[in-house]
């Protein structure tokens, strides 16, 4: 066998090996993307939108969230603490009819407090707390984002926007005060008509 033929065979073999490695890496990347999409659900789509459709950048961000917070173990709430939180949320909902701004502010504080007590980063580090919550409660974390934004705006949004934020935030609240943190077994919030004819939350 000539030297030229041997070199050609070596080159062909190297190209095949490199091509297989590239395909394997690409397939692994796509699989990771599917895994992130399945794990984060609507939060995946929101992150992609925030990155102007750049799925790779969004997936890098989500993978980093999992790396930082994936091992977090949620602590149980004592029954009396759970009851206290539920009573405070009910009071905030009742207050919404007369003072929506105060109600969304209280909802924001309650979510930060119960999340901290369950073992998430302190609410004083809102972005980090939200990031950790998105890893473990991706389906409802946007409710916290919406109520926090409404509270930060000082209630400048419409009453309907604040009501919707409260409704969405209640889903996450229910998960966090649930006996295992993931059950969501409690009744979720829904729009309710009030005696004043305006829409409240319940």
What does the model show?
- The protein folds into 2 domains: 3-69; 79-201, no CATH class.
- 69% of the residues lie in helices and 3% in strands.
- It is built from 8 helices and 2 strands, in the order ααααααααββ.
- It has helices spanning 3-40, 42-50, 55-69, 79-96, 100-117, 126-136, 141-152, 159-177, and strands at residues 191-193, 199-201.
- The protein has a two-stranded antiparallel ribbon.
- 34% of the residues are buried.
- Keywords: Membrane, Transmembrane, Transmembrane helix.
- The chain crosses the membrane at residues 6-25.
- This is Secreted protein.
- Residues 174-202 are annotated as: Disordered.
Strand content: under 5%
- Determine the structural class based on helices, strands and strand pairing: mainly alpha
**Unreliable segments (pLDDT under 50, ≥5 consecutive)?**
20-31, 179-198
Which term fits the overall shape? Answer: elongated
**Would you list the SSEs in sequence order as H and E?**
HHHHHHHHEE
Strand order of the largest sheet: 1-2
Specify the helix fraction band.
Answer: 55-70%
How many strands in all? 2
Put simply, the count of helices is 8
Tell me the domain tally: 2
Organism: Streptomyces fuscus
Protein name: Secreted protein
Keywords: Membrane, Transmembrane, Transmembrane helix
Brief characterization of the structure:
With 202 residues, this protein is an all-alpha fold. It contains 8 helices and 2 strands.
List keywords for this structure.
single chain, 202 residues, 2 domains, 3% strand
């Amino acid at each position: 066998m000539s030297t030229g033929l041997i070199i050609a065979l070596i080159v062909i073999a190297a190209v095949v090996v490199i091509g297989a490695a590239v395909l394997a890496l690409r397939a692994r990347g796509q699989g990771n993307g599917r895994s992130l999409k399945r794990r984060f659900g609507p939060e995946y789509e929101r992150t992609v939108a925030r990155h102007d459709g750049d799925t790779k950048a969004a997936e890098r961000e989500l993978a980093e969230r999992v790396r930082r917070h994936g091992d977090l173990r949620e602590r149980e709430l004592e029954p009396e603490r759970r009851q206290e939180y539920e009573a405070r949320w009910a009071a905030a909902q009742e207050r919404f009819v007369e003072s929506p701004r105060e109600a969304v502010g209280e909802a924001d504080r309650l979510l930060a407090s119960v999340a901290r007590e369950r073992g998430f980063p302190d609410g004083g580090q809102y972005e980090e707390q939200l990031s950790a919550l998105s890893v473990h409660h991706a389906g409802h974390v946007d409710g916290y984002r919406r109520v926090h934004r409404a509270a930060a705006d000082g209630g400048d949004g419409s009453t309907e926007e604040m009501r919707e934020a409260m409704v969405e935030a209640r889903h996450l609240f229910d998960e966090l005060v649930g006996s295992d943190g993931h059950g969501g077994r409690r009744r979720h919030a829904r729009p309710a008509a009030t005696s004043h004819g305006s829409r409240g939350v319940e």
